[in-house]
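User: These chains co-purify. Model them together.
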Amino acid sequence: MEVLEKKNKNKRYKPILQGIPDWPVYRLSKNRKEFLDEVAQKSFYRIKQLRPTRKQLLDELEATVYREQQRMKRNRWRVDPPDESKFWAKIKEELVALTSKPSEEVDKHIDSILTSIVDRYADEIAGNFKPSSYRFTRELVKFWFGRLLNGARVKKFGAFFRNKYTLRDKIQIVGKVKALRNLARKGTVVMVPTHFSNLDSILIGWVIHSLGLPAFIYGAGLNLFNMKIFAYFMNSLGAYKVDRRKKNLPYLEVLKMYSTIAIRKGAHSLFFPGGTRSRSGMIEKSLKLGLLSTTVEAQRTIYMETPPTEHAQKIFIVPVTLNYHFVLEAPELIDDYLSVKGQDRYFPEEDKYGSWQMIQYMIKFFSKGSNISVSVGKALDVMGNYVDEEGQSLDANGRVIDTRDYFRSNGELAADHQRDDEYTRMLSQRIVEEYHRINRVFASHLVAFVAFEMWQKKHPKLDLFGLLRLPEEELYLDYEEFKQTCKRLRKQISKLKKISKIGMATHMKGKMDLVIKHGLENVGIFHLKRPLLRNKQGQIITQDLNLLYYYHNRLVGYDLEKFII
Amino acid sequence: MTSKNSSSDDKPVGVIGAGNFGSAVANLLAQHKKVLLYARDEKVIKRILDQRENRGHKMRKAITPTDDMRYIAQQCDVIFPIVPSLHFRSMMRKMAPYLHPYHILIHGTKGLDITLPKDQSIDTVTKLSRKNVKTMSEVMREESVVVRVGCLAGPNLSKELAAKHPAATVVASPFNEVINLGKKLLRNDTFQVYGNNELIGVELAGVLKNIIAIASGALSGMGFGENAKGLLISRGVVEMIHLGRAMGCSPKAFLGVAGIGDLVTTCNSPLSRNFQVGSQLAQGKSLKEILEGMDEVAEGINTIRIMKKCADHYRVRAPITNTLYKVMFEDLTAKQALGYLMRYPLNVDIDFL
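Assistant: Joint model of the two components:
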């Protein structure tokens, strides 16, 4: 029996903007050419600002070419355009040819090389939102998800074509939904979710749609575009591409500029500030500051460009956590994590899952238990202050403050990139804090955490790796002891919940036996080797300790370890 | 950005706290700017107005004393809070309603703040962690909307500053903007200002050196000479670094003006209050007697009390702090303490690099 969510307030939301032509993302894509020109041009100037002398700029370009050519040798992806090698070979030639040019012409040539690089990057990053394919995808997703859900759940012939269940029953959206809808009308929303699975991108797209919000522009990892099925979805949802292999300055500047300008123009945006999927299964502790900094910069630019008498468009940061019982890629993720822990070496991102595996996963997902919940956090301004329903920033005592004042020095609004960077760092810490606060504990997280920590306590002399090397057959826990510990932990979690330090799913309430059962049934449900289950004697055992460690990590960071005896 | 003739450049600068160091800083600032100096005590305000004097400092004309915090916050964009750590948080709470995000706060308090659960006090609690112990910049951020914060630290004996002997300070802040502002406001022909981005490190350096200063006073009170002092200072730096690390900062700040610079100064200065505390302890006076004879707080006493409990929590070896704690709050004598330290078994010279 599935323990249902009691307070399932999921309901249908009306779109806040009627026609697609009103959507900021649509307006952006309609003026794609001008938009990209602006991005390229502004990035060009920014890069020249950052590398003011000829020597510095030249060094930067040479480093860029070198890195790009290395990347093509070592780590090529299917999405890479076929003319990539040719392009960079040509740039290299042009750089070499500079030495034979008369000195007064060199700067002009360097500029033109930089321009062609910047143009190429801007074009590569840009998304291509098409209303027709957006609508088509949306319907397709809704139709097939609906079919899968009903076909699998209602075991009757013909159930396939019924509409008894919808995605809404499968995915619970909790938290500050109304406020989010309100704020999306009043300003520009930047949604920043946690990142655990490749599925996140599609899931969050569905969430945005089902909340009645216009499509957001996405920063999606380019690796996703390797999978054709994803590429199709993402393209039609207005995604722009973030290539984490490219770490060169021109690329990063173009990427940031793209996001900054889009946000400044009022396009609701979404990116995963963790940068990449959480390898350890822990909630992100530190965020990548690059894209995040574009929110601060965009807000400051808006303030500087808006006369004080006029209303300045405000940017709202909305943290979101995605809570799963099961993460498809968990075995690979945790392997990655364990193999790099302690030594900071680079590992190439490879997805072992193709389109087919994804479809299989989805079928499993829809046909079995394992719900997902999405918690929407309170909106923040770019300084991490909470905002009220009107979009006004509040200080800790509820006093309304003017976000503009953070960018004033000596009475005037001024640009200061070092200050922006520091503000970004502060914002990232606030987002992490909010993640922990809105994180929703599932029974599966609880049982995984308790079991792993109990084993850790039983082997106090072993470090993490020592513990993980223990043969799984030797590990078992007495059920009663396990249950008592779970109870104690749940009590602590409830205490934390009371002071809004964490969230808890409804199914965590009630008899502990049922909660444990629910947890065991769901934790890592589709893995070949289950992270946690009961044997015939009723003891708690594991088939894969690494995986258990992964799911256990979800509750790390709350100082709960000390309650395990 | 070029706002030379804008009205805001003529704005006064605020100083909160008319103690010894507060008065010295107000005088430094008054060389460039109008200064509003907050004092709680009406008598102090009157004395400054009538006699232009406070705690032995001749107060410059550009300084206007006031007891109106709201007025200071309204008039000044930049404020220097310099009040004892014990009153720092309540002072911030009082000022917070008048502060806005455009304010910049640079404090000059070398102490720590503790927050304890309601049923606990510093006497009953056995261990303290970073959750309970905060630096002044953290208090400023917690209690107000101001984010651009910084601190002053370094060898700044108020009496020497008043006499215009050459000296230097560090302005520490994560924001270059704040550092540059501090430089602009404080620098003069005999006063050099350095910048440092590691705010917490610099604050802790300034705080922790007070422990060593008390120890130095104790050595001198027992009549020992320069060998002993050299030993103390070098071991003292190591202990400061270990404690600093436990509190979450890198050792870098401890090697600069705010670390070694300040340490050497205070350890050699009978003028310093912390030094005096140590010296009197060595002469066999009890802590109570010493406190009765002082007009201003010696931050080191409170710091030892807090850091001892932090060292216990983080399991850091801090022999100097621990023995001083025993001398102050338990019944170890200074002689016994010294004997204990000289026999201390772990003696690796450098283990922090």
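Confidence is low (pLDDT under 50) at residues 1-7 of chain B.
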